[in-house]
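Chapter review. Work through the record for Kinesin-like protein 6 before attempting the end-of-chapter questions.
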Amino acid sequence: MPEESIKVAVRVRPFNQREKDRSAKLIIKMQGKSTFIIDPKAPQDEPKQFSFDYSYWSHDGFVELPSGILEADNSLSPYASQQRVFDDLGRDVLKNAFDGFNCSLFAYGQTGSGKSYSMIGYGVNHGIVPIICDELFREMQNKKDKSTRYEVSFSMLEIYNEQVRDLLTKEFPKGGLSVRQHPTSGYFYPQGLRILPVGSYNDIELRISEGTENRTIAATNMNATSSRAHTVVTIYFDQIIKMDRSETKKTSVINLVDLAGSERVSNTGATGDRLKESTNINKSLSALGNVISALADISLGTKRKIVIPYRESVLTKLLQNALGGNSKTVMIAALSPADVNYDETLSTLRFADRVKRIKNTVVVNENPIEKLIRELKEENERLKLLIDTGKYNLQLDILPGMTNQHIELMRKNMEEEILSQIQANQQVLQNSKTSWDLKLKNARLDEKRALNQFDKKVPYLANLNEDPMLSYVILHYFTTDEITIGSRNSTICFNGLNILERHAIIRSIDSHKYELIAAEPGSKIKVNGYNLNGSTQLRHKDRILFGANHVYVYLNPLNEQESSPDLPSIITWEFAQKEIAKAKGYSLGNNLTIEQEEIQEKILSLLPLLSEVNAISEELNKYRVFEIVLMPISSWEGIAIKGSKAMIKMRNLLNQNIWFWDEEKFINRSFIIKEHYQKFLDGEEEILYIAKDDDPFWEPIEDTLLGTATAFLQSLAYSLDFADEICIVDYKGLEQGRLSINLCPCLPSGKVLSDEQFVEQPEDLLNKPYSFKITIRFIEINDERHNKGLRIRYKVFNESEFTETNIICRNTVCANVKQIRIITIPSVDQDWLGFFLDGCIIFQIFAVQEEGKPNTGLFQMTTRDLKKMEQKQDNTNFMPISHANSSLPGDSKLKSELTLLQRKFYRLEQKEKRIQQLCQEWTNNHDYNKFYKLISAIAFSSGTKLKATSTVILSGYQLTRNISGANKENPVDVYLFGNEEQEYIKDIEQPNADRQKHWDEYYRKTALKQRRSSITSRIGMNQQSTINLMSLTSNSRGTFTLTTDGSNQNGQQNYNDHSSIFFLNANSTSNQKKTYEEPKNDNIEQLNENNLPMTNSKTTSKHNGTKSTPKTETFTNEKNSTVCTIQ
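Structure tokens for Kinesin-like protein 6:
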């Protein structure tokens, strides 16, 4: 018997519109039979090369003919049309079928790569399946003679989640069709699959339409995802040849397989999910990969014994004959050309490369009919004897260590297989007694031609599906004045999530208009993305969502002009989902970055799943609610990474505990949840009482990310310390509390460096040892619900492990942390310096959660009741809550930069004043050499801080104390430059009491001058500003309100003749109000800069929505911080 390798072809599609909008880069090249793929992350590297039987270039170089058919735009174009693909692959399939060989053709590739286009086609560009069917009947007509007659039968099935569905019937048995193994041949087959006779290509078209409609209905009712299903169309082609005294039957089985999207195998592994192995959704393609690998190893001539794992999945059982069996097989691998799909496309090419090594042993299926009938009868007698004598026990593959229960189960399964085969053989024998013409006549009587029963000029509903091939398949025509929609006893019956018995009513207003009415108050209906309350008049192209997943578009051929001109010509599933997302508050745009586009796609793909899972939670009363959140990657990972990721937040309605799941984990869980729900619908009520570990809605208690506090490190690059209360911000950008931290340069021992270690240029730190200290001093959170405990963790630079605190804040919302960590760098390099200048430390704050017992009253409420109660509470809170200490996330960085600039400013200001002094001296003494020497010394000097004795410092600012008496002003820094600097350094090295007095007196005079000049300039600026600012009025809580239209809270005008103003000390511990007169010149030094009006950068906005209300500013002093709230 000859061996023949599987024939493999690859085909690359054009860019889709989304890829064009992104300006995607092409990563596929083809030359002859070779295909090259370019790594977009390393375009300079040598492209990876693969060789196949055919490499089809369908990316560009084509033109659309007036008929709509796509053809090459010139004779030199490499474009591969649908007809060319059929000529290369399909004609061989037909030839082999007429020769009596079994044939298989299957398409492989990720979702959206063009599998369905190659297999089925689109519009007038028919794919290989319909062309094969059409050409089969053409060839039969051409070869028709008296000695040969042809019989063609058709079946169509779908494999979804390891269940087999017969698509030529609307009845779906519990658990799907059973897959049995033939006890003689060893091949598998679906028991009870309908195999219907067809007499023409039109019959096949009708059967495919029927199967597609049933597939769509099942996918909607059972919450199935079409991209996860495998579709198998099988054509049974028999040639009965009359001999002199007998008839010979030549049989060919043609399997045409459209496999599910291959990308799901790798991307839905749900790393870390305890239930990752509990779902069957990926089992088929994973098992297929294992079978391909095993067959490829066998073809390479390996000496080790290899067991081919056909039994691992339903798909591989049914494809056993096509892979490694008696079949001539062709595979089309569909490739995505865009750089964003590089990993998936490379995986597809590697899979195809393994498949081409497989060799099948093929034989012609030709036997006399009398022999076939005789063998069937003999086989039935033999099988009955096995049952009667029990000798089938000898065929059991009993392994050492098997329990009696396991052996008994194997015996029972074997007996069922034998009985099933006896029944199948009996059916074949019975069919052989019925003429082919009678079979065909009966099959045609059963055909459904629902599409031809109605006038297309009446309004109707057309379904929308994520798979474009399944959209506009189900059509509900309006043939009466009132159409009822519900789960039973309705004009249109829908099954599935959130569909009530009486769900909706569509009623005629006049001959051309209809209105949609919610039949029950709890009916879940969305029209154009928004919830339907009451009724609405339907307009052409309105999008309607019934329940959780029945999406339809209303089409009215009698009144098409009433639709909005902004709507697309064809309404798609994606358009409807974007509309729902926008109505939920998601901002979806067109001019997006690649990252934003990817997040948008994820949100649109997750929203339908989310709706279904929330609906199942209600149906099964699981007290869980799910929502999509956009989590900054830096917050989740704890390191500075740009971008966001879509995550799912699961919340327990009983105790408000929350969990965050990544996309992969949620998708994995959603399919397990839908499996459980299907079992519940099938009557398995025990699914409601499964153990917690097996429940996909249950998750062990874990600490939840409350928020992050970001500390920027720029001050460390200049050897300056930084201390502040940093805002703890959650993923929404809302403040959840404050974290007090301190970053300061230090010695390896931990001793803090003095200000003299300040460096002008960060590059001065390079190649030197450097130590700094991180101190977490204090934490306070806003929500008392998180008082069960907190923990803080962070990473520094390129650390792989987190530094973490112990559990703090038990039974309280604030606590002193006092965690100190010293980090020593042996030698600062450019990476560390860059980290100081542009990096940050992200402190992650986790809240401890407990499995607390909820209020017993909540258990008496259902999940639906609790959600309604929360919704009512949310509707009463339209105004955002104002937090007393709310701030912007960038406060920490701004303060760090401000501190640094203030230090630089002090030095430069004093340097400028010293230069001005020298210039004044120059006017009296024109000694150019001395002047040039002094100026040069100052210009190139970074300055040295003058250290005065503590007595002088205290006396220097006794007169400039804060008038409120709460705090003392910080001493003035005085810097020396040029010759004075050198002179001071010498005096420090050789201590002398007289010289110290000299420098103390110098410090006192210089400090006093700086205060006078600084306060004078600030007061001058403030006088002008206070003419425009009117008055500050305080309430009993210490909140000061400023009205910018010149009125106070009572609406009275206040104009202050002497420019008096209220000052609020930023460091005051109590909320006080003082009025100061403008000082006289000789008492200017009595004021200090902390008495000036000041606002903190921590700002929040709130709109009260009141008309004709003056714009107000509120200054609040609370817990050593000043907050400005603009209303």
